[in-house]
Structure formats: C-alpha cells, structure tokens
Amino acid sequence: MDFDDKYGFEDWEDDKILFEKEDWIELLKLREGRAKKQPSDLYAQQRFAEALNLNKRYKDTLDFITPIYQENYEFGFGIQEIIDALYGLGKTENDFNWIAKPTVLKLDSDTLKLCVDFLRLKKKAKSITDIYCELIMKSDYCTFNEEGLGKYLVKHPDTFDIKKESEYFWDIELKIKRN
Q1: What is the dihedral of CA 135, 146, 122, 163, to 10 degrees?
Q2: What is the pLDDT of residue 1?
Q3: What is the Cα–Cα distance from 85 to 108, expressed in whole angstroms?
C-alpha cells in the first residue's frame, strides 16, 4: 500500500502534507512511486528530482534528470533541479554540459539593469513581487527569492525612489529615480 492508498488523499494533498511537515524521506518515496507509475509524465519526473534534491541526493538527481533534460531541453525541462543539484555539490551552473545554456540571475549589476529596464517603462511604482515576477519570466533560474531581491534593491537609493510602508519587503514599491 502506498501513501496515496493509505490516506485516500488526492495527489496534491498528500504531497502538500509531507512538504509542509518537511518529511523529505516520505516525500521522496511518494514522488518516486509516482514517477515510476507514470514514466512519460515529465511533471512527475521533475517532482521526483526535486525530492532527491530535498534529500541532498544531488548526484542521484543529476544521474536521473540529465537524460530526461537532454530529450526535453527545448521546453526548459529540469533546469531548476539540475542547478539546485549542482549548487548542492558545491558547483556552479557552468559545471554542466548544457544543450542550451540557461539564463541564471544573481544579485548583481546584470539583474539591477533588468530591474531598471523594467521600471523605466512604468509610470507608477511597482512592488518587489511585480519586479520578481518579471525577472522569473526573463530567466531560467533565480539564485534569490523575493525577499533577497527586496533587500538588494533597497541598497540602491541612487537608482530608485523607494516607497517603504513597513519593514516587510513585500510592502516595498520602487520606481526609477528621475533627475
């Protein structure tokens, strides 16, 4: 009897329960079972690779996901899981033989320029969430989350007018500083 049968939850519910409990071992078992049952389901394969990473089995992730990536790279398949595994092994995205090199954003001048370019076209201030969503759409992988982006961008008051309603990053709005 597997987890699905044991508890009678829908697929997403049992996965969510295990994820919230941070029960990575059971999550791995659950996702491995689903990946084996549905070998042509790329989503199931990707989620299994994610569970391998959560269990710090980075080499296993690369061994598993690389051939599937090679067959499906044109869809951007597996990039997140591959990069997470590489970082887990202390490597960088440059340590993988990509068919199509992914766009990886870091908190650097290139990302700052993308933020400026996005905001330059806007009349009203935009939230960190809006900016982060734009960056996600322009990249294959962000090495930072919304909070990290917010903390990085507020360090550039010479570039942005910063409207900060509270101490929380999600309340920050930015627009380009006009001279």
Answers
A1: -160
A2: 43
A3: 22
